Amino acid sequence: MSYNTIISEFEDGIQHITINRPKQLNALNKETIEELSRAFQQAEDDQNVRVVILTGSGEKAFVAGADIKEFASFSVEQGKALAAEGQQKLFNKVAEMGTPVIAAINGFALGGGLELAMSCHLRIASDNAKMGLPEVSLGVIPGYGGTQRLAQLVGKGKALEMIATAGMIDAEDAYRRGLVNHVTFPSELKELSLKIAGKIKKNSPTAVAAAIKAVNAGYEDGKNGFDEEIKRFGEAFGTPDFKEGTTAFMDKRKPDFKGE
Question: What domain range is 140 assigned to?
Answer without folding.
Answer: 6-201
